[in-house]
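Render this sequence as a predicted structure.
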Amino acid sequence: MDLKVREIIEKGMNGLFFLCGMVSIAAVALITIYMIVSGLPAIGEIGLADFLLGQAWASTAAEPKFGILPFILTSVYGTLGACVIGVPVGLLTAVFLSKLAGKKMSAVVRPAVELLSGIPSVVYGLIGAMVLVPGIMDLFQLRNGTCLLAAILVLAVMILPSIVSVSETALSAVPREYEEGSLALGATEIETIFKVSVPAARSGIAAGIVLGIGRAVGEAMAVMMVAGNVANMPSLFTSVTFLTTAIAKEMSYSSGLQRQALFSIGLVLFVFIMIINVILNLLLKGRRDEK
């Protein structure tokens, strides 16, 4: 191929990649601007303190109240609970697939994990409502099994594919020389995995955790079917409402200030996810700087 043709193709591909990157940045910027423009009016009318710290949500009452503190705390507790269960299970599964499992075992486990990511949210919610909710009700002798615990367990399963797939890729990318050096110094295989391979793949593992957190924070359909959808302050065995389900269940019939308040909830959710990403990135950057 002629040299000039190669240069033209290379410049064209570079321009295409640059354009794709700019489109992604523009999309994030437009979403941010839209959420701010749509969400701030209601916050200004209700009052920031009353909106964020109010404990009562009665958007259709004669004297409506728009306090979303129960929704915020429910989303925080639900996400933390799902991570407490899902992150260790997902990380250990990724370690098993990348470092310990044989080819036959990997051929069985890996497709099963990938299948989890392809199951629709409504199916998770249906299984949770038909199996998990009655099980919790019988196990803990509750009058109603739709509660925060049921939502946490469903979310813990739903975040597994993101954590497992990304973490496994990161662990598989660790240079074999690192592990061989550790083994040569007398470390056992398990010590090498958790003291060499996992720290070396920390950035990729963190990326998988961030994706899992994003899935947990942004999930609506599944938790709507198992959480009960009552605007209570969160407790493990009470019916609760997440930020996402608060929007989903009322948006179809909302109007006026109620509709604007739902957009404000979306803005809070957006900021929540951005804060999580910033904190994790700062923690990773700080550890790199220490080294």
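Summary. The chain has a mean pLDDT of 88. Strands lie at 57-58, 65-66.
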